[in-house]
Design a protein that fits this description.
- 32% of the residues are buried.
- With 307 residues, this protein is mainly alpha-helical.
- The chain is flat.
- The protein has a domain of 174 residues: MetI-like (MetI-like fold).
- The termini are close together.
Amino acid sequence: MWRFLLSRLLSAVPTLLAIVTLAFILLRAAPGGPFDSEKELLPAVRERIERSYHLDEPLPAQYLRYMGQLSRGDLGPSFQYPDKRVNELIAQGFPVDLAIGGFALLLACAIGIPLGAWAAWRGGGADRLAGGLALLGISVPVYITAPLLILLFAVTLQWLPAGGWGEGAARNLVLPVLAMALPYIAYVTRIVQSGVQATLQQPFMRTARAKGLGTGALLFRHALRPALVPLVAFLGPAAAGAITGSIVIESTFGLPGIGRFFVEGAFNRDYTLVMGVTILYGLLIVVANLLADLVNALLDPRVRLQQ
């Protein structure tokens, strides 16, 4: 297991380095700059501003300077928010996205895993019903379900607030978590359903039935464990995407997450802010995939033996 973990950690370092390098180059290659605006700046003013942010240096020098800052955990100052550093902006918005995305994934697993396993085990009408609901959840986008949830629970029934963070109050979390969780519930249900169906056809399941094992032992001890392998592989990148937030969810419910910073930074060519969010997303992808590989290695020993 340690050898397996070490190999994954070693492969993560060049992956992160490639993400940082490509993001740095592509941002500088895009047309426009962080200080371009409808009102043209005086050449002397522009030169002074660019010198203060080291944008007057050659690109290789800027890259080495940025990598030096990054090695110290410093993501640099924001061009769009002059009195803020990127670390501060991410620290401000990340807890919001972590709470919404984390609870959404937990809800998706809590509902999708038993629903998918039950539908595959029962078969027939239950299988078709779960498959139809999963297809509906996958097909309907969040920008439709989120306003519908607000209309039903906030406007019509007046049970929950329509938006706002509310310092993380439970009432304010319910609707955005539910809106983000619905498509993930559909994906988890479909993946588990297909995995259990495939596992039930395996010879070892017929052997277990022949030995007279009960339904609980057949489903949870023998069928569900191998069926969770593809689900874990899906949850790796899905966790990174959910935690870094959805601009649709943030905009609809008025949440102060990092998604809005990323969009505003991209429009305003805020190099350091976009780089910071990109690095955070890349780091979450690498960490989530590493955890998914470890869980898969525990669920399926053949994964470890391949190393």
